[in-house]
Amino acid sequence: MYAYFNFRTMIRFLGIFITTLILVSVIPSFTDAITITYISPIPVATIFAIVIAFYISNAITRMENIQTNVAVELSRSRRAYHLANGLASSADLKKWGKELQDLVVEYLQSFGGHDFGEYNKSSKEFREITYHIYKMDPKFLKMPKEIAIYEELLTTTREWAMVRQNISERKKQNISLYSWIILWSISAILILFLMLLRTQDIFSTRIVSGLSIVAVLFTLDLLWEINNLSKPERRILARKYLFNVEKLKINLPDGDLEVKSQKSKVRNRK
Q1: pLDDT tens per residue, the chain (270 residues)?
Q2: What range does the domain containing 207 cover?
Q3: 8 Å CB contact between 42 and 143
Q4: Is residue 188 part of a domain?
Q5: Is residue 152 part of a domain?
Q6: What pLDDT score does 24 carry?
Q7: What confidence score (pLDDT) does residue 258 get?
Q8: Does residue 157 lie within any of the structural domains?
Q9: Is 196 helix (H, G, I), strand (E, B) or coil?
Q10: Cα–Cα distance between 114 and 122 in angstroms, integer?
């Protein structure tokens, strides 16, 4: 699910449902004073179904793309953090790696001060990471392994920047105001046709028309929820960045692993 169901959503659904049924039951057009048999909502309903399906499909694809890019970005942040562990042949290089790790953690923790809707506010922290990597003094890199790690850091940073750009662009690709006007215009015409339905059984006509109108409004509401990141969803995405801080420490640095291995051997000898 892309729109997280909560109490406010339930209240909105109930409001749409109850209000529509009340209006259908009291509106003057639902009387047997005039008999209209040639008006059919099927052509308009078909157009509505095609258009709404197109926009919902695009909105779902957009959301999937955002979530995929968030996962890739978190992966790149962990990779940059762990690559810094391999730069430890000198005190200066080790200090540089520790500063990089602190900047990565600071970037991820910046999402605790705002939700995912304010994603671009984290640009400052990300620029500090890239600047720190790009200003590396080449004389610190003395071993082939360290040179390879730094080249991998550059590649990871480039991929990370591209992912951030994709997220920013996808967030901007909302349904335009003009498109919403078209959708609501088609919906209004369809609702009008549904209100003009006539059968011998007035009560059944009201129920069928009312439920059909509710379905139209629910579909528009669904599109709105998918197209616009809801507040709970924005918080969940932001928390992924905060939770990623804990994942950074899952893998121990190579040095710590060697120390633990040596201690284990000593204990076994004893």
Answers
A1: 444 455 666 676 677 666 766 666 666 454 444 444 556 778 888 999 999 999 999 999 999 999 999 999 999 999 999 998 888 777 888 889 899 999 999 999 998 877 788 888 889 999 999 999 988 877 778 888 888 989 999 999 999 999 999 999 998 888 888 899 989 988 888 888 887 776 666 667 777 777 888 888 889 988 988 888 777 788 888 889 988 888 776 554 444 433 333 334 434 444
A2: 7-269
A3: no
A4: yes
A5: yes
A6: 60
A7: 39
A8: yes
A9: coil
A10: 9
Residue with tokens 């109930």: 14
Q: What is the dihedral of CA 231, 236, 237, 243, to 10 degrees?
A: 150
DSSP per-residue string spanning 152-166: HHHHHHHHHHHHHHH
Task: Report how far residue 76's alpha carbon sits from residue 79's, in angstroms, rounded to the nearest whole number.
Answer: 5
What whole-number distance in Å separates Cα of residue 167 and Cα of residue 176? 18
CB atoms within 10 A of CB 142: 12
pTM over 0.85: no
The alpha carbons of the chain give a radius of gyration, in whole angstroms, of 29
| Cα distances (Å, whole numbers) of residue 107 to 170, 241, 267 | 21, 9, 41
Sign (positive or negative) of CA dihedral 185, 189, 190, 191? positive
> Do the Cβ atoms of 65 and 166 come closer than 8 Å?
yes
Number of domains the chain is built from: 1
DSSP string, 19-78: HHHHHHHH-TTSSSSS---S--SHHHHHHHHHHHHHHHHHHHHHHHHHHHHHHHHHHHHH
**14/221 Cα distance (integer angstroms):** 12
In a domain, 214, yes or no: yes
